[in-house]
Structure formats: C-alpha cells, structure tokens
Amino acid sequence: MEAIQAQVRNQTTGNSVRMLRREGWVPGVVYGSDVTSQSIQINGRELDAALRQQTTNKPFRLVVDGTTHDVMVNELQRHPVMGNILHADFKKINMNEKIHTSVPVLMTGDPELGVATLVRHNVDVHCLPGNIPESFLVNVDGFNIGDVVLAADLEVPAGVELLVEPTEVLISVLPVKAKSEESIEAEQEAEAVAEKAVATE
C-alpha cells in the first residue's frame, strides 16, 4: 500500500495556506469516525508521485508526524488551468470493513464497425478496501454496431459486489455519424486555401 508522509498544519488562515503552496506544500485534512478532523500539509511532489502510482479510489497509508492512518482520498481540488493539487481531503477507513466506492470503466481495442461509446464512466462497488479494483477494463475488439456491454459482462474479482443492475448498459457501439454537407464544404474550402497558400510560396 502506498505511504504518504504528512505533517500537522497549525496555521489555517488564507495567507498561511497561500504561503504553504508557494513553498511546495499541499494543505489537506484527515478525518474519520474515530479521529478528530486534523489539518495537515503534504509535499506536493510526493503526493503527485503517489497518485501516479495508483488511482485515487485505492487506499493509502497516511503517516502524520509518525502516526499512521489507513485512508482514502475523499476529494482533490486542482487548479483549473495548471492542474496542480490545491487541497486534499483524506477519510480514515478500517481495512477490515467493507466500503462503498466508485471504480472507472475503461475501454481497449477497436470495434469492427461503428464507434464504442462509454454510457457509464464508472460503477459503484461494495468490498473491503484492499479488494477495490483499479478499473474494469473492457476489450471492444471485433464489436459491431448495436453491440453493448452490460454490467453483468464485467469480470468482477472475488469479494467485490457490483452495486448496479446486471442489465445496466455500460458501453454501446453506435454508427459513425455521416459528415454533413456543411462540414464537407468547409473541409474542401480549407484544403483549397491551403493549396493556394502553398502555390504562392
């Protein structure tokens, strides 16, 4: 299990938070049923590196000034342009108690005909934290228009319960949309302009 080092954060005013971020820290909070909400700070680069190693729906080990908590990321706030993490909320969990969480549905491969479209990007599951799948990967190679993937078609590991109806459609293969006359004319005009520009060089 990935371990993240953190420190207790004593000052929580707006100015102190901005200063923390300038120094490379990410302010955060850890809370749970058996722990008082605690303000913390985490090295931004270390947190980014940890999140690249695993998805945010998997449990982490958060070590706050030497005290270890098993947690999951409850919420991440990112900068709308830069994408860096601005704030992180961690919820303490019991590794021996089942929880509800969301698992992404991903596609691989290409249909024989049509375009595969995700109808649902994630599904809810109920299981022990250590059994949470990183994703449900579906291979759509050879699929044809009209083919669908249902929740019942997923390969669900032992100990994991899907919290969706078996007949729920997750992926659907649809016809490729024909180009409109306007889009075709626009493409032809763009090509003519490009050819003219090349000819005059």
Automatic annotation (TrEMBL):
One of its GO terms (molecular function) is structural constituent of ribosome. Residues 4-90 form the Large ribosomal subunit protein bL25 L25 domain. Keywords: Ribonucleoprotein, Ribosomal protein, RNA-binding, rRNA-binding. It comes from the Bacteria. The keyword Ribosomal protein applies. GO terms for cellular component: cytosolic large ribosomal subunit. Residues 98-175 form the Large ribosomal subunit protein bL25 beta domain. InterPro entries: Rbsml_bL25/Gln-tRNA_synth_N, Ribosomal_bL25/Gln-tRNA_synth, Ribosomal_bL25_b-dom, Ribosomal_bL25_C, Ribosomal_bL25_long, Ribosomal_L25_dom, Ribosomal_uL5_bac-type. This is one of the proteins that binds to the 5S RNA in the ribosome where it forms part of the central protuberance. HAMAP family: Ribosomal_bL25_CTC (MF_01334). Part of the 50S ribosomal subunit; part of the 5S rRNA/L5/L18/L25 subcomplex. Contacts the 5S rRNA. Binds to the 5S rRNA independently of L5 and L18. Belongs to the bacterial ribosomal protein bL25 family. CTC subfamily. This is Large ribosomal subunit protein bL25. It comes from Brevibacillus agri.
